Amino acid sequence: MSYLPGPIKDLRRKSLHEELTQTLRDLIIHGHLPPGVKVPEKELCEQYSVSRTPLREALKVLANDGLVVLEPNRGARVSLITKQDLDEVFPVLGALEALAGELACARITPEELAHIRELHDGMLSHYQKGDLDSYFDANQAIHEALLAVAKNPTLSAHHRSLSARVQRARYVANMTPERWARAVEEHEQIITQLTARDGVKLAQTLRLHLQNKLDAVSKQLERTNHILRN
């Protein structure tokens, strides 16, 4: 069984190593390579016309990010999503996003605010259409834009090193209509507080937003583990 979608792009348009690493990261985050599955190295090499050397270099980077586990003489396996891992990562990420919100309120320009509001409007459109994948993409773009307007490269680098582990967790969460509606309400608050340059409230909302996501993912993991045990 193949977990891979069709060809995504010509990997040689950019640095082969960087592009291959990002492509594999996207496959894992979007669930094309699910937690626990063995990374199909031969198939990936054929799919993207690369040799084993750059593929294995990319896998080393993903292992450092916690997305894969390298098994001696057995290749690589996509790491499992565990409650312990989430409980460890989410509070740190929440602190980083809260700081980003405070800095964004102090440093954002009118043009940058207009751009984020445009992203928000696009996200609402996807929500109204029930397009969950496009909603997630727009949602992520908003959080990345908030980091960018914080204008702190060190903060962005630390956030980037953790965010992939959180991004893929959203695909195992059961996004109920109630939780989805609440997430949209939280984003409305984010935009309102950013517009008002209220860094204290925005920091609180960003922390709550991430905590609610952790709660949803944790509940789904508990349900999944219960099914596996039975």
Automatic annotation (TrEMBL):
Residues 14-81 form the HTH gntR-type domain. SMART domains: FCD, HTH_GNTR. PROSITE patterns: HTH_GNTR (PS50949). It comes from the Bacteria. Keywords: DNA-binding, Transcription, Transcription regulation. InterPro entries: GntR_C, TF_FadR/GntR_C, Tscrpt_reg_HTH_GntR, WH-like_DNA-bd_sf, WH_DNA-bd_sf. GO terms for molecular function: DNA binding; DNA-binding transcription factor activity. This is Transcriptional regulator, GntR family. It comes from Paracoccus laeviglucosivorans.
